[in-house]
Amino acid sequence: MSVNESLMQNSYHPARSSHIELQDNVDAQQAALLEKICPAGLFQRDADGRLVFHHQGCLECGCCRLIVGDAALSAWRYPPSGSGIVLRFG
Ligand code: SF4
Asked: What is the DSSP code string of 24-44?
């Protein structure tokens, strides 16, 4: 099973607001790390080249927090109860 097929087994209940927030000015090195390490590819560039984060589909793995921490993220918390990912391994 491919990674994408495996991810499609999961169920998501996105919260209205994001549980992860970017600092206002993320430097280029930190931005490149975030784009590279998020297994769900949720850190992307907008049309103006700015780094943006899409919270829907977050695996809650914590990689972004471990790799860049406060240097690029102003907030990292789990989604509110009843929202977020439901992992399925079948
Ligand atoms: S917690 Fe994991 S899946 Fe969610 S944004 Fe961070 S690296 Fe990506």
From this structure: SS--HHHHHHHHHH-TT--EE
